[in-house]
Design goal:
Shape of chain A: globular
Shape of chain B: extended
Number of helices of chain B: 3
Order of helices and strands of chain A: EHEHHHEEHEHEHHEHHEHHH
Radius of gyration of chain B: 21 Å
Oligomer: heterodimer
Number of strands of chain B: 2
Chain lengths: 268, 84
């Protein structure tokens, strides 16, 4: 049975697209046929993060309007042949996505794919609403920062009340917390909300912590999902997250300050 | 304030402030989220009715909505001016 995952946050710039790209690649690398859809109509960016921006011919809105078939619009990833990308349209018409149209495309994808990852735009407007509406699981991407935590809480309220599962009185969406841009050393100094602080407020199941890492910018610069950088801390953190989502028991990493004694003593 | 206190305060970061602010805010937003959407309008109209008869200010009335497992309570609180 196919599962629809929404990667959401409310707030912008917290790492939704980075996360969507990483977990979609992670799931595909683990042998599951996966599609990742950019719901940010007007501000397409997933294609850049996935490194397929020059191969975009048709987009999500073309498929909804039946100007192209799904197979014409889906771009096969260059690194993994089980991963496909459905890019967003660059149209400025904000009503380009319809609930009926999105539902139809997702139903068609469900026949062929195991996981469908929906990269939500920021905000709580139509694109964000439709990205989460059909979801089975929600990855709530949060930074340890007040505005992000508040927006995540708003988003949780919407997931619980405005989704298809909520409206049809089905089992609620499974919600998971992904804490990104985490700096254990700043947490230790009391300068940053800790994992426990954020969990106290949001009471969510923690799927993983992604440390603040240079590798994320390196990955987006080169258009390869950071999970493929297996040596990097962020890449490993995303690999852990995919494994935990698939039911593996992996201890949490990157939560504690791992600096050596002397670096701690002398700073740096 | 002793020198020691100075160091102690500088050690306490801003994260605890952030957490406290968030806890208050999120609790408040969650409670208002579950309220029926007609509540602000109801409060406005009730105030208009009361102001027809009693000279009260804008903040003299508060309406709160609470939901338990088996019942919903609408609490209306009107503060009348003191008789002098």
């Amino acid at each position: 049975m196919a599962r629809i995952i929404v990667v959401t946050s409310g707030k912008g710039g917290v790492g939704k697209t980075t996360t969507s790209a990483a977990i979609a690649m992670g799931l595909a690398k683990r042998g599951h046929k996966t599609a990742v859809i950019d719901f940010d109509v007007g501000l397409r960016n997933l294609d850049l993060i996935m490194g397929c921006e020059r191969r975009v011919v048709y987009d999500f809105v073309n498929v909804i309007n039946e100007e192209a078939t799904l197979n014409q619009a889906l771009i096969r990833d260059k690194n993994c042949n089980l991963l496909y990308i459905l890019p967003a349209s660059q149209t400025r018409d904000k009503d380009a996505l319809s609930q009926e149209g999105v539902g139809r495309v997702l139903d068609e994808l469900k026949k062929d794919f195991k996981y469908i990852v929906c990269d939500s735009p920021a905000g709580i407007e139509k694109g964000a609403h439709l990205a989460m509406y059909f979801a089975d699981d929600a990855f709530v991407v949060t930074n340890p920062e007040v505005s992000s935590v508040r927006d995540s809480d708003r988003m949780l309220g919407l997931l619980a009340s405005k989704s298809r599962r909520a409206e049809q009185n089905e089992e609620p969406i499974n919600e998971f917390l992904l804490l990104t841009r985490y700096s254990p050393d700043r947490v230790k100094l009391g300068e940053m909300l800790s994992v426990d602080d954020v969990q106290d407020i949001l009471s969510l199941h923690l799927l993983g912590v992604i440390p603040e890492s240079k590798s994320v910018l390196n990955a987006s610069n080169s258009g390869t999902p950071v999970i493929l950088d297996e040596k990097s801390d962020a890449g490993q953190a995303y690999a852990d997250i995919v494994a935990r989502y698939l039911g593996e028991d992996r201890p949490h990493r990157f939560i504690d300050d791992k600096k050596g004694f002397f670096r701690k003593l002398f700073g740096g | 304030m002793s020198l020691l206190d100075y160091f102690r305060i500088s050690k306490v970061g801003t994260a605890s402030v952030a957490k406290e602010r968030l806890q208050i805010l999120v609790a408040h937003e969650r409670s208002s989220k579950n309220q029926p959407s007609y509540l602000p309008q109801l409060q406005k109209e009730l105030l208009a009715v009361i102001q027809k008869y009693v000279n009260v200010g804008q903040d003299a009335i508060s309406v709160s909505f609470e939901q338990d497992d088996d019942q919903e309570t609408l609490e209306l609180n009107i503060v009348l001016p003191d008789h002098k």
